Amino acid sequence: MATAADTIAFQTIPHPAPTSEADRTAMLANPGFGTQFTDHMVSIDWVEGKGWHNPTVGPRGPIALDPAAAVLHYAQEIFEGLKAYRHPDGTVALFRPEQNAQRFNRSADRLAMPHLPEELFLGAIDAILSVDGGWIPDGDGASLYLRPFMFANEAFLGVRPAKQYKFLLIASPAGNYFKSGAPAVSIWVSSDYTRAAPGGTGAAKCGGNYAASLVPQAEAIERGFDQVVFLDAVERKWIEELGGMNLFFVFDDGRVITPPLTGTILPGITRDSLIDLLREEGLTVVEERYSIDDWQSDANSGKLVECFACGTAAVVTPVGRVAGRDRDFTIGTGGPGQLTGRLKDRLTGIQRGQLPDTQGWVRKIG
């Protein structure tokens, strides 16, 4: 199969001392999440008046950065996250990578950064997989996590959009995002912090959004919970999302609600895919606001039978318990629901080539 990299001339610089096969095998046996990295990375430069140039795949290593680089002072930085899977036939596959490319550029728009052409985004992925495809681990929940990102590296201290940027792509073998054995995650409702406000950067995948979530996330962990959930910044009553995942609510009448994309919630690719799968099953999916008070009362009455979070890293994760300063309730039995489990199996089956791809979502590399 022809790939995007076939039409883009990436310079390849061999790694002088690649990881030995024995060391790589040991690393892949228990990769964890985000702590192990492959040998190579992709780098592409952008300069005003010249555009994108110097596409290179070479050894992964430190970045030389001027102390006055704009990213360090004004946070012009965006990123994406997607996974590469090894299919049963031995091919490498991606799940809807063009959606990541398009969201990357929507984030770039919000942060006043240049667009990266979709073919160049996809070509960068092809380029790193051509040299580091052997890093894709086997096993349940395992994949090669890909992290494309772009930042302003022009050295200046004036407040304006930078005129120089760097795009990088690194790869990390990954296992399950949450600890194995947990039947469902528990969530703490943040009362003191919000993730995003109307007109802000909530719909962009930029580092600042995640930095702002670290204190409330730490608060949740200190209280014994797995994740934090944010309410809207205006009324402090409407459910938005977790620190890095979208939410779905399943009711006893078969209806499913997920908060709408109003500019304060990241438009998740997993979220979008699950909406399509739910509707394919004949279920009614409504994108509408859902309040924290309704969440509690519906869970207590039994009207709400399941709740799950979703995202690239965590895929589909059941939510069992929710608590806050003046509330504490359990959803269903506190464990995975039938629909949640079925959706996860369906989605991961498509991603891993174990079930038919009726939507045309899978892009095979070779």
From TrEMBL:
Keyword field: Amino-acid biosynthesis, Aminotransferase, Branched-chain amino acid biosynthesis, Pyridoxal phosphate, Transferase
GO biological process, one term: L-valine biosynthetic process
EC number: 2.6.1.42
Record keyword Amino-acid biosynthesis present: yes
Pathway(s) where this gene product acts: Amino-acid biosynthesis; L-valine biosynthesis; L-valine from pyruvate: step 4/4; Amino-acid biosynthesis; L-isoleucine biosynthesis; L-isoleucine from 2-oxobutanoate: step 4/4; Amino-acid biosynthesis; L-leucine biosynthesis; L-leucine from 3-methyl-2-oxobutanoate: step 4/4
Reactions performed catalytically: L-leucine + 2-oxoglutarate = 4-methyl-2-oxopentanoate + L-glutamate; L-valine + 2-oxoglutarate = 3-methyl-2-oxobutanoate + L-glutamate; L-isoleucine + 2-oxoglutarate = (S)-3-methyl-2-oxopentanoate + L-glutamate
Enzymatic class: transferase
GO terms assigned for molecular function: L-isoleucine-2-oxoglutarate transaminase activity; L-leucine-2-oxoglutarate transaminase activity; L-valine-2-oxoglutarate transaminase activity
Obligatory cofactor(s): pyridoxal 5'-phosphate
InterPro entries assigned to the protein according to its UniProt record, in alphabetical order: Aminotrans_IV, Aminotrans_IV_CS, Aminotransferase-like, B_amino_transII, BCAT-like_C, BCAT-like_N, BCAT_family
Family per similarity comment: Belongs to the class-IV pyridoxal-phosphate-dependent aminotransferase family.
Primary role: Acts on leucine, isoleucine and valine.
Protein name as catalogued: Branched-chain-amino-acid aminotransferase
Species the sequence originates in: Croceicoccus naphthovorans
